[in-house]
């Protein structure tokens, strides 16, 4: 490829809407172009990198025994209603109607479609296990698309689905895919970590997310400093010690706490430790025409984990904070909530495990500017269920060893699920076993955000000059740059090197534009090409310069030796 023929429009400044570094640099380097909020075109350099990531994924999945297919983007609503996810997926699902008013969706994922294929084709245990995958555009109507390719409404994804005759066989394939993912992200040059996670709307009994570690990550990861325990903050647990408080119960007393709606203000006003306070938060779930209300109780020094709370109440949809009007309807005072025994029967109360050993607590009185002191569980409070609903903090004890949990930021680029029999049961995916009896298949599901992987690589690999691509996914590995296009000796040697490199398997581009050397160097650094070969003043001696993007190192070398040297350098980058 020649720069003179390449469709490339680089930018000197970052567009105002670009918040994170990958978004800024992908736009500036001319790799993507915005069409609408959360929707991007991939320009030639960006598409080459996407292709390289896809190639790595295909090679590893094919080697792991998977088979590639391609399923429709447009999916009939009947399948989603049959599986029970038509409403569960919520507003993120892109819904539409055809000219006959039939409901369809633009696929956010393909569990329903693949299960429909398998249930119609697979009849015997002899045809199982099987693992099918695709690389395809997905659609999700994000409320707030942001961060470029990190959270878009249209994105490229690899999704795979496996079908089995037993949980044991699913366990084997789960491990197989887990290891394949480790190889994929290692080959992509990423610093990543697998973590335990919540399965969300996909469902299933067990799941791991693969996170690229980066300060710009949207997720908090808790990990042990001694063992290999790691979990998304939505799933993380710790081994904190909850000591039973043996003090005698005191008389419940109403206290004036004017202008102290935050729990920190209340504790300070009453001159009590915040661990003696109880924080109450109000949530709701809306499914079709039914609205359910939940109050979450947690010790004042912790925060409520909404995913854990959703799991505690077995809600099929995401929970939302209630409105001011709903506070009034439920006779609950915003900022002064409390789970007193006389609260509405419509409110289901979930208390965190940290509440169990507490005595003589401070709790909202459901009256403006009022709190109760000396509240106690059995005597004063309504609690329907105890459950771990707290966000784990950095510094807490590991649940698996005597280590301490630390926190890092991560970008989720992949996830593996043990789905179990849920989809197969709902959609009727069954097979005849060895004894001729009809059995329900067991499923696994495995996803990788391909476009997000590209953006994540930049979040880990950049400097003030631009992108620093890992060699394996760089659009071109070598950029040959004649310093002066008016110097025929330089041009001839550069063309000779370009011809020689083109005969190798090293992806090479030549910058044959009639531009200043500084301009070409800046473009090369912005785009992030790993190796520059500058053909300059010593070209009449057959001497060129190798410049490494990652380290800034410069090596003078004979033109005859440059290919072998580049091969050596590639192994170290």
From TrEMBL:
Its EC number is 6.1.1.15. It catalyses: tRNA(Pro) + L-proline + ATP = L-prolyl-tRNA(Pro) + AMP + diphosphate. It is found in: Cytoplasm. Homodimer. It comes from the Bacteria. Pfam families: HGTP_anticodon (PF03129), tRNA-synt_2b (PF00587), tRNA_edit (PF04073). The keyword Ribosomal protein does not apply. Belongs to the class-II aminoacyl-tRNA synthetase family. ProS type 1 subfamily. One of its GO terms (cellular component) is cytosol. GO terms for molecular function: aminoacyl-tRNA deacylase activity; ATP binding; proline-tRNA ligase activity. InterPro entries: aa-tRNA-synt_IIb, aa-tRNA-synth_II, aa-tRNA-synth_II/BPL/LPL, Anticodon-bd, Anticodon-bd_dom_sf, Pro-tRNA-ligase_IIa, Pro-tRNA-synth_IIa_bac-type, Pro-tRNA-Synthase_IIa_type1. Consists of three domains: the N-terminal catalytic domain, the editing domain and the C-terminal anticodon-binding domain. The keyword Cytoplasm applies. Catalyzes the attachment of proline to tRNA(Pro) in a two-step reaction: proline is first activated by ATP to form Pro-AMP and then transferred to the acceptor end of tRNA(Pro). As ProRS can inadvertently accommodate and process non-cognate amino acids such as alanine and cysteine, to avoid such errors it has two additional distinct editing activities against alanine. One activity is designated as 'pretransfer' editing and involves the tRNA(Pro)-independent hydrolysis of activated Ala-AMP. Coiled coil: none annotated. This is Proline--tRNA ligase. One of its GO terms (biological process) is prolyl-tRNA aminoacylation. Keywords: Aminoacyl-tRNA synthetase, ATP-binding, Cytoplasm, Ligase, Nucleotide-binding, Protein biosynthesis. It comes from Hypnocyclicus thermotrophus. Residues 51-470 form the Aminoacyl-transfer RNA synthetases class-II family profile domain.
């Amino acid at each position: 490829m020649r720069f003179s023929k390449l469709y490339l429009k680089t930018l000197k400044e970052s567009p105002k809407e670009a918040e994170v570094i990958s978004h800024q640099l992908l736009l500036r380097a001319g790799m993507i172009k915005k069409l609408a909020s959360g929707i991007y075109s991939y320009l030639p350099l960006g598409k080459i990198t996407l292709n390289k990531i896809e190639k790595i994924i295909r090679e590893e999945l094919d080697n792991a025994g998977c088979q590639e297919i391609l399923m429709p983007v447009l999916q009939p609503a009947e399948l989603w209603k049959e599986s029970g996810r038509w409403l569960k997926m919520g507003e993120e699902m892109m819904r539409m109607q055809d000219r006959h008013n039939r409901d369809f969706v633009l696929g956010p994922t393909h569990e329903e479609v693949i299960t429909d294929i398998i249930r119609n084709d697979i009849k015997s245990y002899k045809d199982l296990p099987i693992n099918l995958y695709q690389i395809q555009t997905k659609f999700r109507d994000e409320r707030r698309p942001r961060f470029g390719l990190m959270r878009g409404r249209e994105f490229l994804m690899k999704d795979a689905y496996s079908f089995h005759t037993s949980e044991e066989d699913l366990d084997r394939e789960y491990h197989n895919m887990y290891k394949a993912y480790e190889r994929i992200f290692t080959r992509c040059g990423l610093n990543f970590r697998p973590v335990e996670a919540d399965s969300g709307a996909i469902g299933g009994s067990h799941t791991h997310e693969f996170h690229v570690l980066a300060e710009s990550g949207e997720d908090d990861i808790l990990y042990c400093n001694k063992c290999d325990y790691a979990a998304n903050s939505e799933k993380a647990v710790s081994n904190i010690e909850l000591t039973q408080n043996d003090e005698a119960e005191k008389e419940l007393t109403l206290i004036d706490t004017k202008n102290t709606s935050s729990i920190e203000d209340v504790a300070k006003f009453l001159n009590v430790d915040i661990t003696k306070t109880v924080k109450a938060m109000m949530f709701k779930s809306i499914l079709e025409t039914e609205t359910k209300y939940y109050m979450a109780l947690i010790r004042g020094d912790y925060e409520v984990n909404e995913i854990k709370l959703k799991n505690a109440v077995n809600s099929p949809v995401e929970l939302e904070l209630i409105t001011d009007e709903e506070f009034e309807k439920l006779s609950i005072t915003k900022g002064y909530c409390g789970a007193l025994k006389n609260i509405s029967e419509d409110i289901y109360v979930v208390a965190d495990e940290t509440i169990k050993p507490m005595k003589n607590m401070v709790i909202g009185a459901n009256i403006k500017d009022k709190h109760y002191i000396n509240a106690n569980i059995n005597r004063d409070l309504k609690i329907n269920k105890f459950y771990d609903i707290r966000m784990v903090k950095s510094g807490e004890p590991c649940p698996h060893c005597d280590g301490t949990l630390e926190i890092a930021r991560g970008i989720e680029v992949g996830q593996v699920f043990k789905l179990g029999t849920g989809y197969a049961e709902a959609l009727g995916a069954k097979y005849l076993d060895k004894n001729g009896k009809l059995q329900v298949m067991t499923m696994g599901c495995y996803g990788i955000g391909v476009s997000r992987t590209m953006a994540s690589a930049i979040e880990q690999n950049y400097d003030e000059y631009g992108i620093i691509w890992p060699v394996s996914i760089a659009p071109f590995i070598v950029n040959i740059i004649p310093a002066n296009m008016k110097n025929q000796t330089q041009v001839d040697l550069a063309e000779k090197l370009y011809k020689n490199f083109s005969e190798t398997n090293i992806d090479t581009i030549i910058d044959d534009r009639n531009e200043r050397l500084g301009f070409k160097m800046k473009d090369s650094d912005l785009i992030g090409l790993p190796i520059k070969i500058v053909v300059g003043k010593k070209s009449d001696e057959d001497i060129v310069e190798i410049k490494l993007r990652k380290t800034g190192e410069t090596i003078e070398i004979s033109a005859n030796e440059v290919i072998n040297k580049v091969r050596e350098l590639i192994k170290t980058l």
